Amino acid sequence: MQIKIMFQLLVAYLCLLGLMSVITYYLIYPLAVDKGTAIATMFGWSAGLFAPFSALILLNSWKEQHNINLKKDFIVKSLDHLDEAIRAIGQIYWLIYINDTKDYFYPYNQKIISQQLDEFIMSEHSKFVLNLGNFHKTARRIVGENAKFKKIYNQLNKFHAEIIKILDIKRKCLEVDAKEYNKQFPYLYDYYHELLSQKEKFEKIAQKYLIVE
């Protein structure tokens, strides 16, 4: 960025100097009694005109750098929200399908979830929903309708829908077809690891916004 600014300032000054040299040579020099004074005046005018041009260049450069910094801030925030969203939904996935607490959920049974477990799961769910919304809001401002952003956002919603379906059945003690209910669980593994794969792809896109320009 600094090299770019210096180059722009140099080009601007040389252009002004060239313009003033032409004006001085054809209009002022023939009429000037003191040639040295005419040349000094040319440099003085060039410097005077250069001041507003340099201020404009510096202002535009500041705006450009400010926008770059804003993009970096947004992408860092979006990655933080994505990490937290996946952590929260992954925690719920672990509790209902991997940890010993899975006995409450799989295979289908009528066991009542303990209040402590229920409160913890719903707390993690609230964190997921909050960070999912913030991820969508911050990431979309930078990457727009990028295909990889759409994929990971859709995958998050898809995985969340499957998790919520299971939680609703257990929390509301709904009667369902046990066979159909049990068939959902193996897919959770695929959904979760596809989500992690999409996360890696999105992070690669995000990296280009974090490169110092």
Automatic annotation (TrEMBL):
<feature type="transmembrane region" description="Helical">
    <location>
        <begin position="40"/>
        <end position="62"/>
    </location>
</feature>
<keyword id="KW-0812">Transmembrane</keyword>
<feature type="transmembrane region" description="Helical">
    <location>
        <begin position="7"/>
        <end position="28"/>
    </location>
</feature>
<keyword id="KW-0472">Membrane</keyword>
<keyword id="KW-1133">Transmembrane helix</keyword>
<protein>
    <recommendedName>
        <fullName>DUF4760 domain-containing protein</fullName>
    </recommendedName>
</protein>
